[in-house]
Automatic annotation (TrEMBL):
Entry's Gene Ontology cellular component terms: membrane
UniProt-listed PANTHER family: LYMPHOCYTE FUNCTION-ASSOCIATED ANTIGEN 3, SIGNALING LYMPHOCYTIC ACTIVATION MOLECULE
Species per Swiss-Prot/TrEMBL record: Xenopus laevis
Principal location class: membrane
UniProt name for this protein: Ig-like domain-containing protein
Ig-like domain: residues covered: 147-209
Keywords from the UniProt entry: Glycoprotein, Membrane, Signal
Compartments where located: Membrane
Length: 252
């Protein structure tokens, strides 16, 4: 639905004017609470730039910029949040998700030529360690061959995930999941998440232990003792039998 909404707004902003396009749409990224600049990239002397947004129903000419002059804010909700650069580019500050939208700049030159430039501003949150969750699953076989599966879940959009310590032949990475074969307890793994404006990492130290059945060791020890006792009894019995036969020979 959001994609269709952007298409409708883009169509409205471009269709409402008969002016030619200044160039292809410019994508701009900004962080929540930070700022973003909508650059005016055009050859020629700029007279003024009218900045327009749309909510899908009506157009809102919310600001005008001119080279080397303060911004003229026409919508009170932008008071204190807009700045005009020396080349008439527009900078928005204290960004929120509400600022994520399509913007149109009607650029008028001193020669009275006019063109329209579209911008797509995307606002992202600054990632932190708290936005990353690492879930672990540990399996082992009878010989204590331990496999650790780590999955990295991140809150946010347009996020890419990478793992460290993945150069070993006993590791395997699929999407956000890291699988470690023959895992050792003294190795830590770090998941790093990145979006266009920030990055954050979280480290996992997975305690790897082999839970052998303690009774197995007891059974083995008992068997060794039994074997030793049986051997001693066999030796003593054999000795007594041999001595008995020797005694019988002497009597005869």
């Amino acid at each position: 639905m959001d994609h269709i909404r952007w298409l409708l707004i883009t169509f409205l902003l471009t269709d409402i004017s008969c002016n030619k396009e200044c160039g292809p749409r410019i994508n701009v990224s900004g962080a929540e609470g930070g700022g973003a600049s909508l650059p005016v990239k055009i050859q020629g002397q700029i007279k003024d730039v009218s900045w327009v947004i749309s909510d899908g129903r009506r157009l809102n000419h919310f600001a005008t910029t001119k080279p080397n002059e303060p911004v003229d804010i026409r919508d009170f909700q932008y008071e204190g949040r807009l700045r005009s650069e020396t080349d008439a580019s527009l900078t928005l500050t204290d960004l929120t998700n509400q600022d994520q939208r399509i913007y149109s700049a009607d650029i008028r030159l001193r020669s009275n030529q006019i063109c329209d430039q579209l911008y797509h501003l995307q606002v992202y949150k600054n990632l932190s360690t708290e936005d990353i969750q690492i879930h672990a699953n540990i399996t082992q076989n009878e010989t204590c061959n331990v496999t650790v599966t780590l999955s990295c879940a991140v809150i946010g959009s347009d996020v890419t995930v990478t793992w460290n310590n993945t150069n070993s032949p006993v590791t395997e990475v699929t999407n956000h999941t890291l699988r470690v074969y023959n895992a050792y307890s003294d190795v830590t793994y770090s998941c790093t998440a990145r979006n266009p404006v920030s990055k954050a990492s979280r480290t996992a130290h997975i305690p790897v232990t082999c839970n052998r059945d303690p009774q197995v060791g007891n059974y083995t020890q008992q068997n060794i003792i039994r074997l030793g006792l049986s051997s001693m009894i066999l030796v003593i019995t054999s000795y007594l039998i041999i001595q008995h036969f020797h005694g019988m020979k002497r009597e005869t």
